[in-house]
Design a protein that fits this description.
The complex is a heterodimer of chains A (about 325) and B (about 140). Chain A is an alpha/beta fold and about 325 residues long. Chain A is about 35% helix and about 25% strand. Chain A contains ten helices and 14 strands. Chain A is globular. The model of chain A has no long low-confidence stretch (mean pLDDT about 95). Chain B is mainly alpha-helical and about 140 residues long. Chain B has one domain. Chain B has eight helices and no strands. The interface between A and B is medium-sized, with 29 and 36 residues.
Chain lengths: ~325, ~140
């Protein structure tokens, strides 16, 4: 069994989402707790901006959860930068036990899985999960300098400048994290770093099929099934291949990367991506719908592409991973 | 579905770059840049600058303008539409040097700007020099007969 039903489902006591101008101008702009027009968050390098974003988002989540920093037992966090420096510097000032995680763009769900399991097991009472991505720091690490004059392919995606955070607690009124399933590393053999959706879709399908089989739930159980950042191409592949397996997801399925940005006018090609993409959509947009009573059950599958800039140059294929978190308004 | 079948499935359904549109823009913008260079040459000659010097001044001007537009953050917006039109002329080379220089100043003048300035343009210099050596050897051999 890969599926874990949490014995004492932890409550999401509070959550927060931040972004930059582009995310604010997108369809979910109103769901951000804070945005920075310049994307610098007052810092002089992009890496420091990303760290500052993490510091801000965790402070906001703590405030919304009415939780003091002193009450936190641990922080689970990660980002896309080499050696996760975005999290290390951003969360330094909190002085809390820290688990630095790397799951590429799946990090937010990875953090939620580990955090909720440890709270459910009773080792921790309150934990925080944080993840972020910054367009400018990701571009310079994975692609080209910002001012370089190149053209993107139609399947390329746009790294979101955003961050999200959950505060998970043992007691509370919900929404709860009731089920979790860690993803497996799945290699679909895709080598095109400009088609991450296609590279990650097999991992999303693998986790989804395992979940439906082991849980006995059908897609209709959920208000939404959301992948992290498959983008338009990955979404269409997932929909079609899941249909071939006998699961029609058309009614409930969407992707955080597609939700975050507004189609052609924002020029993001296939949609948003990055650790902060699904983290901010889930922590902002989705959690607000839980609180308004619109959503009761959401299946969140954060997808990650497990490569680096050199592995693709060396011709290695891009394996993907998809971690699953079931958020529910009832235990 | 195995890797091969999946790869073929993905390739078949993947949206393609709009080749015709890209070529048209590249032709127009590239042509415009070349016409501009030609006009510059005529302007310099009109100003009574010796022909040898004028022919050096033209690329110098283009490099200067490209680097300036890169610094102002405009070059990449033009290049997004122009593609090969701005990339192939000397303008693309200037941008490829100026962009990483600006980007990496956060790591300092030595390890940032100095070390990273030629990460994109480096291969062009290396293989450009190599090609000119090969061309020179061929030119020399042909000259023997």
């Amino acid at each position: 069994m890969r599926l874990i039903r949490l014995e004492n489902p932890p409550t999401i006591l509070g959550s927060a989402a931040v972004g930059s101008k582009k995310e604010f101008e997108g369809p979910l702009g109103a769901d951000l707790d804070l945005h920075d027009e310049t994307g610098t968050f007052g810092m002089d390098t992009w890496e420091k901006s990303e760290s500052e974003m993490q510091r801000i988002v965790l402070n906001l989540a703590l405030a919304k959860a009415k939780c003091e920093t002193a009450e936190l037992d641990a922080i689970f966090a990660g980002d896309l930068l080499n050696q996760c420096v975005g999290s290390a510097y951003g969360l330094l000032s909190f002085g809390k036990p820290f688990f630095g995680l790397y799951g590429a763009c799946s990090t937010f769900a990875e953090a939620a899985i580990l955090g909720s399991m440890l709270v459910s097991a009773g080792y921790f009472h309150k934990v925080a999960t944080v993840s972020s991505s910054h367009f400018c720091s990701a571009e310079r690490q994975f692609r080209f300098p910002l001012e370089y004059g190149g053209q993107r392919t139609p399947t390329a995606q746009w790294t979101a400048t955003a961050a999200g955070s959950f505060i998970l607690g043992k007691e509370g009124e919900g929404p709860y994290i009731t089920e979790v399933m860690a993803g497996r590393i799945i290699d679909g053999g895709i080598k095109d770093a400009n088609n991450m959706g296609a590279a990650m879709a097999p991992a999303a399908i693998d986790t989804l099929l395992a979940y439906f089989e082991e849980s006995g739930n059908s897609p209709d159980t959920f208000d939404r099934i959301l992948t992290g950042d498959l983008g338009r191409e990955g979404v269409l592949i997932t929909l079609e291949l899941m249909k071939r397996e006998g699961y029609d997801l058309t009614r409930v399925y969407n992707d955080c990367g597609l939700l975050l940005f507004g189609g052609k006018s924002q020029d993001v090609h296939c949609g948003g991506s990055g650790c902060g993409c699904s983290a901010s959509v889930i922590s902002g947009h989705i959690m607000k719908r839980f609180h308004s009573g619109e959503f009761h059950d959401v299946l969140y599958l954060a997808t990650g592409a497990l490569m680096n800039a050199d592995s693709t140059k060396q011709g290695s294929s891009i394996p993907g991973i998809a971690h699953l978190v079931h958020i529910s308004s009832h235990k | 579905m195995n890797k091969k079948a999946y790869g073929e499935y993905v390739k078949a359904r993947m949206p393609k770059s709009p080749l015709l549109k890209d070529c048209a823009f590249a032709f127009l913008v590239g042509g415009l840049i070349c016409s501009l260079a030609e006009s510059l040459l005529h302007l310099y000659l009109y100003w009574k600058i010796p022909e040898e010097t004028a022919k050096t001044l033209v690329p110098v001007t283009l490099v200067f303008v490209s680097a300036l537009l890169t610094g102002l953050g405009v070059f990449d917006d033009i290049a997004k539409f122009a593609g090969a039109g701005t990339l192939v002329p000397i303008t693309g080379f200037a941008n490829a040097v100026a962009a990483p220089a600006i980007e990496n100043k956060s790591e300092g003048l030595i390890m940032g700007v100095g070390a990273k300035m030629f990460t994109i343009a480096g291969p062009v210099i290396v293989y450009g020099t190599l090609c000119s050596v090969v061309y020179g050897v061929i030119y020399w051999i042909v000259g023997l007969f």
